[in-house]
Design goal:
The complex is a heterodimer of chains A (107) and B (453). With 107 residues, chain A is α+β, with helices and mostly antiparallel strands. Chain A has four helices and six strands; from the N terminus they run βαββααββαβ. Chain A starts with a strand and ends with a strand. The relative contact order of chain A is 0.29.
Chain lengths: 107, 453
């Protein structure tokens, strides 16, 4: 089955988690879809690293948060919020690459 | 106490709230009105410069309504991270607003101001003793960096606010404080469940953002019991759902199960979210686990120079194709022109339509749009030097003869005259470390003032 993340997620967002980290939240519409993503471990450190052109060690964690039907990923910011050359002080517009994610799930 | 009611009027003091929601909240007979007034989110400038990111008139409007209502019902008002960043100048800024309100409204009350500035010498001493740890991915502090930091604050825990309540303060303005503390302080004074009180504070600090449709400028109310808390919005257009409340727990956090704070950690491993009514959610199971050593988070910002920017655009397809080469050439020309005279500067030309939003994190390399926006940014040791670099880079880019150029009259469209803008001081975060302390009260002195009468 081909799944587009944008079709199954209610919220896809990014935000600072303090000035040195960026955190991404994917909140699913349906439990069944959250379960599929968790079961097949579709969101991985290597996937996030690839989307943002960073090393896997810069992806701090991937966490499944069941109470919110959510999966979140946190990365180290390449530059701290507000440093010279940094482009997004609040970190609220770094989610875009997630919008075009597609998965092929064997179900 | 078996039940405590906590009213949170707005997500950030100065963001406002509808009077109708506030009055509905007051009708629920809250035991305290609490609000968070700050964040590091707007970046290092506000902490470094000592200025507020919120507007004075808007802050005064919110405080005026809150203080009058609280005094009438004889309940306390608690403000965390006053003035936006919670350094001394921010606290004084907010204090002046409260004093003004007391005079104008002829109010009589006891004001407490809790200072959160940390002395540079103490930070050096703690660094020497190995009691300062960087928060990943920050590097360890150096003495030089400590000296350059203009404002150092620490996030206070709940203890200084509890002390101010015990000493009879009606209005408490705290400097930099851990966000949930202003909401949980009264509960801590009455020895209620601290884990639940702090978790409720985590949600209330953003007021109606945790409801759906969310809003940063509307009220939320929480009811704390011995074994759970309940939360609901006060505007009938909003609802709290298990999803909206649980989702808010994720917001701006690295790990939503383990939330470290001053003196311990909130553990959400066994937390449950239950829908009680159509718009009210019940939360239980959150625990506070005290840490072995009491640590507080230090925040600091230092001045790194002055900024001047110029905003322009181009719609020329040949120019857009050549943009990387043009930027490189402009950088070289500027460097060459001022060599030996003005070397210590940063010139940063960003291209919107290419990677203006995501910078280093952008993986799409091609420009597909028909026009791009350009910001020329110069940062140097003085405003004059920043003006020089920006001006020279702008004129160089305007007339640069790039490869294949057809439009020879000028390369840039400037939307404004003057084309260059002085943006003033530039700061960056220089401190984001935890520091071990012996006593949660020692670094946060409380000053009292009897206002009115």
């Amino acid at each position: 089955m081909n799944i587009k993340l944008i079709d199954v997620a209610e919220v896809i967002r990014s935000k600072n988690a303090g000035p040195y980290e960026l955190t991404f939240d994917i909140i699913f519409k349906e439990w069944s879809m959250f379960d599929i993503f968790v079961e097949h471990k579709l969101i991985t450190k290597s996937l996030i690293a690839g989307l943002y052109g960073i090393k896997e060690v810069q992806v701090m964690n991937i966490i499944e948060f069941e109470p919110a039907k959510a999966i979140k990923a946190t990365i180290e910011r390449p530059m701290a919020s507000g440093d010279i050359g940094e482009t997004d002080v609040y970190g609220a517009q770094q989610h875009a690459p997630l919008l075009s994610l597609e998965f092929n799930v064997p179900i | 106490m078996k039940k405590m009611t906590i009213l949170s009027p707005t997500a950030i003091l100065g963001y406002g709230f509808p009077m109708e929601s506030f009055e509905k909240g007051m009708a629920k007979k809250p035991d305290v009105i609490a609000v968070d007034a700050g964040s590091t989110d707007p970046g290092p400038y506000y902490l470094g410069s000592g200025k507020s990111f919120t507007d004075r008139k808007a802050v005064k409007r919110d405080l005026n309504i809150m203080i009058k209502a609280a005094l009438k019902d004889d309940i306390p008002v608690i403000v965390g991270t006053a003035g936006g960043s919670g350094a001394k100048s921010h606290l004084e800024w907010c204090g002046d607003i409260v004093r003004e309100i007391a005079v104008e409204e002829k109010l009589k009350f006891k004001l407490a101001l809790i200072d959160a500035d940390i002395d540079i010498n103490l930070v050096e001493e703690k660094l020497d003793k190995g009691l300062i740890t960087p928060l990943h991915p920050v590097k360890q502090l150096t003495k030089e960096e400590i000296k350059q930091t203009t404002n150092i604050v620490a996030q206070m825990g709940i203890e200084p606010m509890v002390k101010a309540l015990n000493e009879g303060a009606n209005v408490i303005l705290a400097g930099r404080a851990y966000d949930p503390t202003s909401f949980a302080a009264l509960a801590a004074k009455h020895k209620m469940n601290l884990g639940l009180a702090l978790h409720l504070g985590k949600i209330l600090e953003c007021a109606a953002i945790a409801s759906t449709p969310g809003s940063g400028s509307d009220c939320m109310i929480g009811y704390l019991y011995e074994d759970c808390f309940e939360i609901e919005p006060l505007n009938p257009i909003r609802k709290c759902t298990t999803l909206s409340v649980a989702a808010h727990t994720l917001y701006e956090k690295t790990n939503p199960y383990i939330l470290p704070g001053p003196g311990g950690t909130l553990d959400l491993t066994d937390t449950t979210f239950e829908q009680v009514t159509e718009n009210m959610v019940k939360v239980s199971g959150t625990k506070f686990i005290p840490s072995e050593n009491y640590t507080i988070k230090l925040e600091g910002a230092k001045l790194i120079g002055y900024r001047t920017i110029s905003i322009a655009g181009t719609r020329d397809a040949i120019m857009i194709k050549e943009i990387d080469n043009i930027i490189e050439a402009v950088n070289e020309r500027v460097e060459d022109n001022f060599i030996g005279q003005l070397d210590d500067y940063r010139l940063n030309i960003s291209v919107y339509g290419k990677n203006g939003v995501m910078g280093q994190l952008e993986t799409i390399k091609d420009i597909t749009g028909h026009e791009v926006g350009i910001i020329i940014e110069a940062v140097a040791k003085t405003q004059d030097e920043a003006n020089t670099i920006c001006s020279f880079a702008r004129s160089t880019m305007l007339h640069y003869g790039y490869n294949g150029r057809v439009a020879t009259a000028g390369n840039l469209a400037f939307p404004y005259s003057p084309s260059d803008f002085k943006a003033g001081e530039v700061y960056n975060f220089s401190m984001y470390h935890v520091m071990e302390i012996d006593d949660p009260l020692e670094l946060f002195p409380i000053y009292y003032e009897q206002l009115g009468g």
